[in-house]
Amino acid sequence: MKRLLALALLLGSAAPAIALDQANVTRIDTATVRIDWKDAGAVDIYAATDPDATIRTARLIVRNDRDGMETVPADKATRTYFLLKDRKTGQTTRVAERILPLDKGSNFRDLGGYPAAGGKHVKWGHIFRSGAMPLLDEADYAQLQGLKIGSVIDLRSIEEREVAPTLLDDRTGALFIANDYSAKAMFAAMQTRPDGGITLPDNLYGGLGIMLKPQFRAIFARLLADEGAVVYNCSAGQDRTGIASALILTALGVPRDIIMTDYHLSTPTRRPEYEMPPVNPADYPNNPVLQYYAAAMKKPGGVKAEPLYAKDGEAYLTKFFRGIEAQYGSVEAYMDKELGVTPVKVAALRARYLE
């Protein structure tokens, strides 16, 4: 029951508060969402397309609601942020859909709303994580255009980008950043089973903290540059992207249990069918990523989103954290030494991305 409550909160949550609490947004259909919250008194609801909108600049859509639930119009083509105001205390809570309702996207979601350092919360609409985006359609690009994306950081290898290129930067005018490395090293640690599947090592993320230093540095550099929303992705949007998200949330002071729950959201929100375009594997015989997807597609049900746990039942991210802490003393010390995310920069990140 605790896990279900945590998932409901994280799928579309805003800050817990003294009176107004546990707000979340659930999409009903292409034109409607439901907002749920807990409050002892009456609440007014405002809507805006600007993630930093205030009560003065937002549009009042519901007045004096007392039942803790309201279904409101919200076209999926335009991202909407809601402000819930307690009529008695004046307290305001911001909330939005955590998962963007893309037609052909996988794992594209907002890191906003999580409780963080100093009793504050991560701002909505500024930091987005995703899986690969090679099959986005025109409606998806139109929706993403409205996010005012300034940077797209692609965490994928040369082989992945070769067969499933990202066009989001071209379609939005965002800065595109990718650092070349081969996926062959990662796949060398994996074992191919007789059924064509792959057995993953227990320490799946071992070494990624150093291997992906250029990519992680780039993400923090773009966040500190404050030049529009930041989007970062890998193929599934769960492993390399999961580590990057964990580092960002750690820097912002988000509790470890919340970070882990966000990490595990990648299983239900992943859509593997949109991560790889139809490509003939024979045209890329030396591409291990494409060979993996081709083998997986031959199995019943194709590529599946598997829970992110090792054979011993422990989450891969937990093992990553333990390894980092054993070597550096803390995740913060690793970020300082290896990524250049000093305490001064952490303070700057919190000043910009917490409210």
TrEMBL record:
Designated name of the protein: Tyrosine-protein phosphatase
Entries under InterPro entries matching the protein: Prot-tyrosine_phosphatase-like, Tyr/Ser_Pase_IphP-type
Originating organism: Sphingobium algorifonticola
Entry keyword set: Signal
GO MF, any single term: phosphoprotein phosphatase activity
Signal peptide: 1-19
Keyword Disulfide bond: no
Tagged with keyword Nucleus: no
UniProt cross-references to SUPFAM superfamilies, sorted A to Z: (Phosphotyrosine protein) phosphatases II
